[in-house]
Amino acid sequence: MRTEDVSAGLERGELIKGVLRINPKKYKEAFVPSPDGSADIFLDGIAARNRALNGDVVVVKVLPPEQWATTAEDPTGYHSSPLQIGKRGYNLHELTKIGQLKTVVIIFEQKHSRAASGFLKFLPNKNFAMFSPVDHRIPRVNVPLVDCPADFVSRPGDYENVLFICRITHWPADNNFAEGRLAKTLGQAGEIEPETEGIMTEYDVDFSEFSEEVLNCLPQDLPWSIPAHELSRRRDLRKECVFTIDPATARDLDDALSCKQLSDGNFEVGVHIADVSYFVEEGSVLDQIAGKRATSVYLVQKVIPMLPRLLCEELCSLNPLTDRLTFSVIWKLSPEGKILSEWFGRTVICSCIKMSYDHAQSMIEAPDKHFSAEELPPCSTNHRIHEIKEAILNLHNIAKQLRAQRFESGALQLNQLKLSFSLDKESSMPQGCYVYQYQDSNKLVEEFMLLANMAAAHQIYRTYPELAILRRHPPPQSKMVDDLQEFCDQMGLDIDLNSSRGLHRSLNENLGNDEYAAARREVLTHMCSRAMQMASYFCTGALKDENSFHHYALNVPLYTHFTSPIRRYVDVIVHRLLAASLSELLYCIEPPTEVHKLASHCNDRKTASKRVQELSSELFFAVFVKECGPLDSEAMVMGVLDQSFDVLVLRYGVQKRIYCNSLEGLKAVHFRKVGKRPEMTLVWEQADPSKESTQQVYYPKQLSVC
């Protein structure tokens, strides 16, 4: 289809453009969001996707209403009510707004890398082998035998458990199989490094070493010190009590805090962010590679940095007892957290101590305790430990006020359990795993980072209303919210989904106080998260309706990212905009459409990075279970399908799908739906034939499994 025909079809509403999402657990099902964001629209079967892969931006054609059809399992594995093409009838009045999909007309933008990890299968009497991707959403690929190992034809069995990387080069329209070339032999499946490289390659993560040309952009005379002329143009905060609070293992320290009480009872609070833009010159080769990578990628065992380590871990990192360049926002705050004044500017600091979250937490929990030097990391002699403790306690008290005000004003937080690992120092193999504990010290840092990000958003939008890069979060899909509300009502769960404020209050107040209340909250948090749309970066000049700038979860009109420029490229752009806004210089002559493209690219890389991080965690958990299992844990049912059910494993915070045909001793499975509530009855064999079979009825509620 010609470009002009696509444009005309989109204008008339005959075509719909959106990002294709393929169900990872049912690869024949795919989804595209409806134009108004109210629901997902379902494409049934591989042929309907017309060779598009997960994440591609596609244009699809709409069928007339009489050809519409029924529901499907949603992309995360639960029955909802997206619009579908198929052979199972549907209530047409629900679909009159949008129509129904026929097929993908064109791949508008190819986002998927077309690379995959997988296995080779020998095909007798063929001049090609069959490559089967680990990810079933990617088609099987014919690869020429000349790409295969030299002894593959004579000894194919040697390669049954070997992972390869394959890149799709062509996919004929009339063939279920693609064509491609082998790019690399990774190693044995199930081993951490081969699996990790496969994950990163598939999601197009650049993990190569930085080139000599890039490294030449960095200061060459080491050790580096701040030039005198640069010091003279900055506000000097080196004598102030400034400190960092980070995970104990962190090496890229983006942010620091300061807090001192004023004579009038108010507080001067500062958020000081590494001035990465000083080192990353706009338009340089270093800038280009940082923009391409767009984000650091955090794996369980290592970090793939956005910037060279000399910047990430040394020159930009706010390491203790070292002069560092920063971009600061400093407020005068009342004890209740009310902003009385605000100042932005370039500064220089010298952090007096590198605190971990646990160090700060110990001070919060024991405010009257005298902490000795031996209990804390090395500290500057210019600041007493008591002074640092008082600053942390004051920040904690203000943060509590800010947090309470945010949620009272309608903010929503859907934090899900995060699995962490203890690794062997030599082999990096998992020795243990645990659910990460989110403490008051984490909340303290979070509140002031949010405050700084909101302040930066207002500053750059006020100065550059057409060029500001902000972060928006649309409200949840109304169809999924309606379905979830009906489901909760039938389950007897008192959940208010009418607003972000009501939902937050429900999840924190209405789920009882028994021993399973926390687990019930986690399950419902997961379920509510599925109805949420993703937050995204955008250029303000590309969206004309200011109401669409709103951030639903935070319930604020303007928001951006300013506080992590070492690991996020958007933050570097925001720093440049801020600097320009303060000097009244024009920052960017590119049109908003180009800035919006950059924002879109950063969205893509952030999404990929998040998925790679999740897959890395899943890999390490699988290796841990293999090495240390079997593991027993209570779990809570999250969702029920006709032949499987999903659970949240409470001890580890991981979701797992349990297939009924893999359960030993299972005699029969009976599935039905009572309204929106799916219900499964499992009938178990008895060891004693004279006794009746045992029945268990499963639906999303408390359940013990092993």
From TrEMBL:
Residues 234-584 form the RNB domain. Its cofactor is Mg(2+); Mn(2+). Gene3D superfamilies: 2.40.50.690, 2.40.50.700, Nucleic acid-binding proteins. One of its GO terms (cellular component) is P-body. The record marks 254 as: Important for catalytic activity. InterPro entries: Dis3_CSD2, DIS3L2, Dis3l2-like_C, NA-bd_OB-fold, RNase_II/R, RNase_II/R_CS, RNR_Ribonuclease, Rrp44_CSD1. It is found in: Cytoplasm; Cytoplasm, P-body. SMART domains: RNB. GO terms for molecular function: 3'-5'-RNA exonuclease activity; metal ion binding; poly(U) RNA binding. The keyword NADP does not apply. SUPFAM superfamilies: Nucleic acid-binding proteins. Its EC number is 3.1.13.-. Mg(2+) binds at residues 246, 255. GO terms for biological process: cell division; miRNA catabolic process; nuclear-transcribed mRNA catabolic process; polyuridylation-dependent mRNA catabolic process. Keywords: Cell cycle, Cell division, Cytoplasm, Exonuclease, Hydrolase, Magnesium, Manganese, Metal-binding, Mitosis, Nuclease, RNA-binding. Belongs to the RNR ribonuclease family. DIS3L2 subfamily. PANTHER family: DIS3-LIKE EXONUCLEASE 2, RIBONUCLEASE. 3'-5'-exoribonuclease that specifically recognizes RNAs polyuridylated at their 3' end and mediates their degradation. Component of an exosome-independent RNA degradation pathway that mediates degradation of both mRNAs and miRNAs that have been polyuridylated by a terminal uridylyltransferase. Essential for correct mitosis, and negatively regulates cell proliferation. Specifically recognizes and binds polyuridylated RNAs via 3 RNA-binding regions (named U-zone 1, U-zone 2 and U-zone 3) that form an open funnel on one face of the catalytic domain, allowing RNA to navigate a path to the active site. This is DIS3-like exonuclease 2.
